[in-house]
Amino acid sequence: MQDRLKWTQSALVRILRPAVRLALAMGLKHAQLEEILRDLLLEEARHLWRSQGIPDPNLSQISVTTGLNRKDVTARVRQVRDPLPATEGSSAAKAFTAWLQLAAEEPSRRRLPIVDTGHGPSFELVARLATRGDVHHRTLLEELQRLNLVRGLTGDGEGEVELVGDGFIPATSLRDMLAFTGDNVRDHLLAAVSNTLGQQPRMLERSVYASGLTVSECERIHQLAREHWDSVHYRLVREMAQAHASAAGMGTARMRVGVYVYHEDEPPDVKPTTRAGSARRRKKT
User: Fold this and answer.
1) Staple partner for 103: which of 80, 110, 210, 264, CB 3.0–4.6 Å?
2) Long-range contacts of 15-22 (CB under 8 A, 24+ apart)
């Protein structure tokens, strides 16, 4: 039991270090991080008891599970509104992804007329189909332009818009980038935690890694991963769109599939964990 606690603490140091780095970069202090941790302890403790058949755990049960005193538990029984947007339901992301899929099948369609004339694809048509007409296409276009993901054309191309990026990456909006960071990292960790706890079904969660490489070789392999992801990405978008349509509004499950690459130049005093050119695979399935 003692070993398990030490192992878990060590794993949490690795998991939380990037989160602490982000927190410090954004100006958060110990008191704010402590508040976040306490609120999460309460939420997850309730989730744990409910998964064990206790729908409404009492204060004593929550206190024993979390180690928080009853007074602190009572003071924190509240719902906190999340100020970040939910990435799953973004109408702008849906419209952008639908347009990206169209352009993958026919590259000339990276450029579209804004208004639907009834003669071929247009941004208005793509937006209407992607959001089922729930959001006006001009509103979506303004949002995508704000995020620098599309640009309006002038001169001979007046009345047309063009895709700028190859993925919905709102790099100019800190709020949106934090939302995607939170959701993507959350689901990656949920997959790893689910596998570690032996839950079913086993989730796909793998990586290959090596050290003792040059930075230029890391970046070359990084670009290779990007190229392979592009082809997989378009197929996954198509499969998910078809699955959503076939569910006809009756589906209750959500899914996120992702990929990541991270590399850094290690300090000279850090010894390589593998010899140059070697690689290992971490497999969770």
Assistant:
1) 110
2) 15/189, 22/181
